[in-house]
Amino acid sequence: MEVNWNAIGQLIQDRATGVGLQIVGALVLYMVGRWLISLVVGAVQRVLRKQHIEPTVMRFAGNTLAVTLNVTLVVAILGYFGVQTTTFAALIAAAGLAIGTAWAGLLANFAAGAFLLVLRPFKVGDFISAGGITGTVHEIGLFATTFDTPDNVRTVIGNNKFFSDPIQNFAANPYHRVELTAQISGAADPKLAIERLKTRRVAVANVAETPAPDVTILTFTPFGPVLAVRPYCHNDHYWQVYFDSNLAIREVLGDSAFPGPAYPLAMAEPRQMAATQS
Length: 278
Description:
The protein is of the alpha+beta class. Helices cover 48% and strands 18% of the residues. It is built from six helices and ten strands; from the N terminus they run ααααβββββββαβββα. α1 (5-50) packs antiparallel against α2 and α5 packs across α6 (238-253). The termini are far apart.
């Protein structure tokens, strides 16, 4: 039986031409698809930028959209080559389930990060106490949030930790109360001490006029009354007002009009304020 080499050669040529055209078509589809994806992602980010959305949210939305569109492009190219995309989608779903089971904790942090970006209980630059850490928020990531603590230590916490503990945002309100206490002798006149402390607080810089500082008797001890001294100030001046008020208490209660323990024996733990890390 004679072999028709011409027919075989023509068949190979036709098949090669068809495969070559498919490859060229796939390359064109890929390049056009990538170009369209970059246009769509860029347009979405420009819209979010005009709405003054936080940069972290813009990056999250842009990356999520880009990944989704790229997966869609790959599936479309495989379909162009005749690959059963339903089987491919099933494989992706199975792989996603396996990865999700193995990375349950990581995905919990991812979900918590998405909620942090949507609910926004704090933002970058806020001074907060959350997850057992107090410090300034340096970055809000998809899986973890980075802090700079008051002693300048970079600390990273998984986002899921925030939703199991209270979140205190000291930067949310424009001013805060500085809480101090001062022990005076039982033989001293508490009214005179209160009057002089109220007068002396005028000399402390950056103490807010409204609301007015609170100076009153907090409690009693065997040594005598304990005064509560509570000036208010802007977050930026918290530590300056805190230390200057301590000095004012010592100056007022240190003269001869107040015998006995004329210095603050009991000092309340200072509250951490925003934008005053040290």
